[in-house]
Amino acid sequence: MKPAILLIGTNGQVGRELNRMLPRVGDVTALDRQLLELTKPEEIRRAIRTYRPALIVNAAAYTAVDKAESEEALARAINAEAPAVMAEEAGKIGASLIHFSTDYVFDGSKTTPYEEDDPTNPQNVYGKTKLEGERAIQASGTPCLIFRTAWVYATQGRNFLLTILRLATQREELRIVRDQIGAPTLSTEIAAATTDILAQIYCKERGSISLSDVSGIYHMTAGGETSWCDFAKAILEEAATAPVSLSWFAAATNNLPLAAGRVIPISTSEYPTPARRPAYSVLSNARLAGTFSVQLPEWRQQLHSIFAVHATGK
Ligand SMILES: NC(=O)c1ccc[n+]([C@@H]2O[C@H](COP(=O)([O-])OP(=O)(O)OC[C@H]3O[C@@H](n4cnc5c(N)ncnc54)[C@H](OP(=O)(O)O)[C@@H]3O)[C@@H](O)[C@H]2O)c1
Questions:
Q1: Any alpha helices (H) in the chain, and if so which ranges?
Q2: Chain segment 10-55, per-residue pLDDT in tens
Q3: Is the CB of 33 under 6 A from ligand 1?
Q4: What are phi and psi of 44, to 5 degrees?
């Protein structure tokens, strides 16, 4: 029998893709903010007690990194307190919890990819509250998979890709930070990898992987690394040859021609933001590959795929 899955945060970049893919694994009930407001713990408890899922997948989060600096209580309610309630309620009904976290739990002082067990030291409120969420879930003892991902983008939503494309229609030059290094990761790839892993757990004969045996934190990002500046350059390179009939691209650029010909590298100090960000937050995906034989494509290949979708007729 297929497991009942409660998907929370179905309108986000990752949630939307999970809603498309998870029916391969189980019977999905998807809740957006209108159906489940995460600042109200009693609503979370009621939803879990009503649907009694075998699996809760939480794709919701407070993700506005700069705004979080002035909205700490709200960020904590959504990123730490809500997942704690989910984990507690899941434990009571024997369900498991799938959750997502961030590269911003690290301070960026390393120069080689972070492993799951490296010391955390978040530099901003968003990272701090996400780390509190991870810890609350783990402390509950509920079987869980926590996937730390990074620099998430999609062809919908609010993200760096769509911001660059919009700005490129308005400015001839874009000044972009060169001294923050990470791995831009497409929401579709995160959802596909998550679905793959859950299929290994729930869709095979008994005796395959059991979630309790693999419970814990895993890094899940695109392969390779880049800076925001080189990511912007790659976006403009792809955009230069994007088919005009690519509907998400037409919406992102409002059907206007691209004016930007140059991306100028600047330093973080030249672009002050309310939240501090790690200079280096590349994550090692070795544990994910070793446990589940899952590896996300290189970041450049992921970017290319969204511009090539139309051309290949997908
Ligand atoms: N975005 C990134 O760059 C990034 C980087 C590293 C890790 N992550 C993690 O990856 C996961 C998925 O992120 P994402 O990029 O898909 O996030 P997203 O696009 O910002 O989506 C977050 C979702 O959470 C929902 N939400 C926020 N506050 C809520 C509330 N009070 N009640 C109910 N729902 C609420 C939002 O609802 P509305 O649609 O109604 O606003 C939205 O649908 C998160 O755990 C995030 O922390 C993201």
A1: 13-21, 41-51, 72-76, 82-93, 125-140, 160-168, 187-202, 211-214, 228-240, 247-253, 286-292, 299-308
A2: 999 999 999 999 999 999 999 999 999 999 999 999 999 999 999 9
A3: yes
A4: -65, -45
**Would you call 30 helix, strand, or coil by DSSP?**
strand
C-alpha distance from residue 33 to each of 13, 15, 61, 63, 218 (Å): 14, 12, 11, 14, 27
**Coil, helix or strand at residue 5:** strand
Q: Can you tell me the mean pLDDT for 274-279? A: 98
pTM of the model: 0.96
State pLDDT tens for residues 209-239.
899 999 999 999 999 999 999 999 999 999 9
Q: Is 287 helix (H, G, I), strand (E, B) or coil?
A: helix
Catalytic residue chosen out of the listed positions 126, 202, 218, 280: 126
Question: Residue 146's closest CA among 283, 256, 265?
Answer: 283
- CB neighbours of residue 75 within 10 Å: 25
Q: Is the CB of 221 under 6 A from ligand 1?
A: no
Residue 173's DSSP bridge partners are 262
